Amino acid sequence: MSQLIFSSKAKTLLLISIASILLFSSCENLSDPGQPEYNYSLFFNLKANSDKQKFYIYNIAPLDEYQSGYLPEFDKYFVTDAEIQIESDGIIYSDFFVETDSQGVRYFTNNNIVIYPGIEYHLNVVIAEDIITGTTFVPSDFELTYPAENQTIHFINNKLEVDYTWTKSSNSFGYLLNVLYPFLYNGTPFNDNYILDQTVFDTTYFFDSIFEPVDTVYTTIAAFDGNYYNHLFEGKASSGIEGAYGYFGSSVYKRLKFIIR
Amino acid sequence: MIKASSLIFIVICLSATYYAQVNVSGYVFDDKTGEKLPNAIIIINNSDSHIADSTGFFSFGLAQGKYLFEVRALGYLSKSQQISLYKDKGNKSLFFKLTPKPILISSVTVTGERYIKEINTTTFELQPGELSKIPQVGEPDVFRSIQALPGVTAINDLSSLIFLRGGNFDETLISVDNVSLFNPYHLGEMFSIINPDIIQLARLYTSNYPSNYGGYLSGILDLKSKTNYKFSGSVSLSILSLKLYASIPVLKGSLIIGARRAYFDLITNITGTAFPYYFYDLYGKYALPIDDNNLFEFSFLYTKDLYDIFSGEEYQRINDGNNPSWGNLLFSSKYFHSFNENDFVDVSIYSTNSTIEADAEAMYLYNEGDLSSNDAGIDSINSLFIDNYIKEYGLKSSLNIKFQGHSFLTGLEIKNMSLKNAWDIKENDLSGLLKYPLEEVFFDFAPNPYSSKDETWDYSYYLLDKIQLNKKIELTPGFRTSYVTKLNNIFFEPFILLFYTINEKVSLKLSYGSYYQYFYTIKDQQHQELYAPFSSYFLANDKNEVGLSTHFTLGLRVVDLLPGIDLNLEPYYKLRKNLPSSYKIDRSYRFEDGYAAGVDILLKKERGEFYGWISYSLSRTVKKNDDYTYYANYDRTHNLKILINFQPWDNWTISGFWTFSSGLPATPVIGKYLRGNDNLNNNHGFPTTVDYEGRVWNIIEGRKNSTRLSDYSRLDLGITGSFLWNKIIIKPYLQILNVYNSFNPYFYSAKVSDTSLEDGEKRGSYVIPTIGVSIDF
Hints:
The complex is a heterodimer of chains A (261) and B (777).
Chain A: H1 2-6, H2 8-25, E1 40-48, E2 53-59, E3 61-62, H3 71-76, E4 83-88, E5 91-93, E6 97-100, E7 106-110, E8 120-127, E9 130-137, E10 144-146, E11 152-153, E12 155-156, E13 159-166, E14 174-185, E15 188-197, E16 202-209, E17 216-224, H4 226-232, E18 238-239, E19 241-242, E20 245-260
Parallel strand pairs in A: 1-20, 11-20, 18-20
Antiparallel strand pairs in A: 1-2, 2-7, 4-5, 4-8, 6-7, 8-9, 9-19, 10-13, 12-13, 13-16, 14-15, 14-17, 17-20
Chain B: H1 2-20, E1 21-30, E2 41-44, E3 48-51, E4 57-63, E5 65-72, E6 79-85, E7 92-98, H2 113-118, E8 123-126, H3 128-131, H4 142-146, E9 152-153, E10 163-164, E11 172-176, E12 179-180, E13 185-186, E14 191-192, E15 199-205, E16 219-225, E17 232-238, E18 241-250, E19 253-262, H5 264-271, E20 277-291, E21 294-307, E22 315-317, E23 325-338, E24 344-364, E25 374-378, E26 381-403, E27 406-426, H6 431-434, H7 438-441, E28 450-468, E29 473-484, E30 489-501, E31 506-517, E32 519-521, E33 537-539, E34 547-562, E35 565-583, E36 588-605, E37 610-624, E38 629-631, E39 638-649, E40 652-661, E41 665-666, E42 669-674, E43 688-690, E44 696-701, E45 707-708, E46 712-721, E47 723-725, E48 728-737, E49 744-752, E50 757-764, E51 768-776
Parallel strand pairs in B: 1-7, 11-16
Antiparallel strand pairs in B: 1-4, 2-3, 2-5, 5-6, 8-15, 9-10, 11-12, 13-14, 15-16, 17-18, 17-51, 18-19, 19-20, 20-21, 21-23, 22-24, 23-24, 24-26, 26-27, 27-28, 28-29, 29-30, 30-31, 31-34, 32-33, 34-35, 35-36, 36-37, 37-38, 37-39, 39-40, 40-46, 41-45, 42-44, 43-44, 46-48, 47-48, 48-51, 49-50
């Protein structure tokens, strides 16, 4: 054995063997990247205390699809022939129709659905042979306790400070605060949006500007459910739905306006 | 008169001789450890001899000419060297490095050292002289030197994490003097907390480690600190830090001190642009030989990283709490007793912890003083409350006995491990500072706020028996068994090693080992960023979810395969179970099985004008999902590393390190879908991108790790010199990383172009020059 190991023939054999093993065992065998799991994306935020429900259903797009242009190309991604049902406690809503917003984006809507806080809703969508189902539990109602509607708040030294307080909305995963200045820059609306943790029930908002807000400021605080939160903030691809990317979520909105002086 | 003339003539001749002499001075070193050798003998032309002093220093005069220097020291191979001395070139500095003879020198060594060294399992060893010769970022780093060894994978240039033979980074025990370290990194994971000056030996078990270690799925990096009973020291300055090292004889014992501090913040303070981060570490060890058979050791390690996260002018602190800081604290006390030359026992108690703490709160001042801007804020309090730790304390004892052809190593270990992960972070305006979404700083999908606490006791017993069956065959069976209180279960880990010596130059080994790991991290690189800053550890909750890895290794070692070049060849296979893995598609983590297989080849030349190694690793690290198999995040199919050291001139060494490896696996993007208008745009969740029309697209990822980044390569060069000045050795070095500016891939992400959304990899290139100097005394 020892003679074999040290002969030059044996060394050559050893090196060839090693090289052969490496060569034959180093072939790549990566997995197939696979196909998208679903053919559609769906975004549906059921809004309690709202007079209009609207939601979006799109086709999945190839990665390298050309994207130039705006409305014509954008429109082709929209699914127009979906059969939609929303059900809660045996009541079924299925009368949905297509509308287009001011930017030309199309969506489904129903002006007659009354969404109640603290209630579970089920979604069923049929598109050709695909079925999308979902469930959401609407957060319970809550109250905006400060500021009061039409309250006057002073803009001092180019600063506006507003202490918002509200009551807890059970089942909520967080709150969205929207502050809208409709006439800030020569009549141009200005929006501020903030996401707050579910444990926050008061916050101080401040606005620091040489532009004095004109007269009226509108505020919306929305309590949203876990499906909405998990999709938009936790990155869960399908949240509250089966059969599509996106989410079927819900929220409860409170609105008020106050006066700036 | 004649006498006077003769006297003057003699004086003149003597003076001429004296002034014609060249002063020769220098040191004699241990080639492996870099330690100075006292009382070495320098023989000139086989006649005159000079003796180095107790510090290894020598100095004498010689006339101009050519001489044969022979250097001898007890326990070392003698070295001969032809040296020419020229008067017009001034005094001559010489540094002789002697190689230890292959015999045991000391009767008092660290516990089990001799025994385990004789268990020829899969080990690589690096000593101080080798650690410092691998070009690195900033300054020599132990972990980065380890990354140059076969079987070790590095994920990128910024990370010093060690991935051994298909194991995740948290599957390797990193210990100093046999005490575990957790999160042992400065600056995230860029540098290790180990000051290389204090290290005597870095021993790496890439798999099949013996049963006197335990609790880790992949391998062991066992760092042994120096013990030196003579006075010596060094001061080192690199672009990263200032280091001090000293060994001081105290009361018959050896006191070792090593300290290091990053100084970039101090420099920027002077220039008025405060850099809000620095780190320091302090190591101390006192070894006291009570007599020839008894030794007492005490050591500690304290490290700290501090980050003044709200140092910017845009923040106003509103509490007096502590800024984010993280670090380690280690204490160890050991008593060693030698019954005779073969039999010894030791007992040690220890405590080690890793903490991350913060209690900082600040108000973000929106565009303060700039009234021409228009901006608004809400609840702009930013706060970091973090209280994370992993603590371990315990007792270890081992007994080494030789008896009738058997060498037994047995031991008992009792340890308590406790973990706490707690944070509440309001990061309204911290996205630029935190760099990573909070959910990925500590572990994948970490919620905020978060709080968890856990604890367990672990009682372990191990036994190894090395049996010399005959002159050629050595068998070492063993086992480790542990009772883990949290899981209320006893685990059994068998080990066996068969070592066959074919002749004095060729040997074979076959080894089997089974290993459990009772804790884990959830770091699956979901962020696909350059490195992960911290790791949170968790204890297994169920005995059926405990990680298990079974190792099979075959080894061939050939000494002098080619003249002066040794070969190590090791095919291996690891069967792995219950590996934490995470998935972005449904933001979940689960336990999966898998395997790692490959072969590591090392050609190493330790002596001569050229020395270094060529290592090649072929490996596959596979995990199995329910539906398909995929390569683990840190899988690199090919890994080639070449280290060459060359000594072209006296006292100068040129080092070159070239590495080439296959790209890391990545998850491709296979589709996209539009978002509706009823959403907020944010990037906290899965990847999104905005096209040039302002529309937001969500990205659909394909199967996990079903593509690869491009191949990686890099060439680093370094040059190190040594100069003698008044018994002080000055060692400057210059290193250049990525000499040919290789455009290497970092991570994979989707990108949007003018006309389409594309998937692709992020690449970057750089050339980093590094200079430093070390002054040894």
